[in-house]
Each structure stands twice: as C-alpha cells, then as structure tokens.
Specification:
By secondary structure, this protein is α/β, with parallel strands linked by helices. The protein has 2 helices and 9 strands; from the N terminus they run E-H-E-E-E-E-H-E-E-E-E. It has a single domain, classed as Hypothetical Protein Aq_1857, Chain: A (Sandwich), CATH 2.60.300. The strands form 3 sheets. The protein has a 4-stranded mixed β-sheet.
C-alpha cells in the first residue's frame, strides 16, 4: 500500500503548512458522491486520527483512513497550475471510469 506525491505536490503542501503555521501533513480520502460513485477528499491534517494509515514521501506525511485506502492505493498526488487555476490532481491506478466533469470516479 502506498500513496506518493510529485515534487510539485510536496512543495505545495510544505509551503502551505509553513504559511499556515500548523499541521502535520496532508489528509487524503474518498466519499460516496457524484455521478460516478466516489470523489476525492483532500485537506491538511492537524492531527493523527486513530486508525490513520500514514505514508511519507518527499518529506510530507500523508494520512489516509482505512476505509479509503482500498480505493486509492497506489495513487500519485500531483499539484498543477494552469493560468489562474491551481489544483491537486490524482493519478489513481484503480479508477475504471470518471464522470464527464472530472469530479467523481468509479473503481
């Protein structure tokens, strides 16, 4: 089991945590929603929750709840800037389909 980060994503998380002044890493998970079934949930982690799985890549800790890992195991988190837009992107090898708007996925 593993979650990894591109250099761009790791740099974004590190700089945001420094500017924010607190936090222990990145929290990644999924929730049931959308037209394809699941959507990514990403946030900054302020603490380690009981049962969290922890991965560390490029100096950043990534926390995942046990219920989400089977859907996102092997995912690479990227951070991209396109003009004025910037966002995390997920390269998930488990995805079988995505909705047209890109907001949800199925496995």
């Amino acid at each position: 089991m593993a979650i990894s980060l591109t250099e761009s994503a790791a740099n974004r998380v590190k700089s945001f945590l420094v500017n924010r002044g607190h936090g222990v890493g990145l929290r990644l998970g999924v929730r049931k929603t959308g037209c394809s079934g699941f959507a990514y949930v990403i946030n900054y982690a302020d603490e380690v929750n009981p049962g969290d799985l922890m991965f560390e890549d490029r100096g950043v800790k990534v926390f995942v709840d046990p219920g989400s890992i089977k859907l996102i195991d092997g995912t690479v988190v990227d951070f991209v800037k396109q003009g004025l837009n910037e966002a995390f992107r997920f390269l998930n090898p488990n995805v079988k389909g995505e909705c047209g708007c890109g907001e949800s996925f199925s496995v």
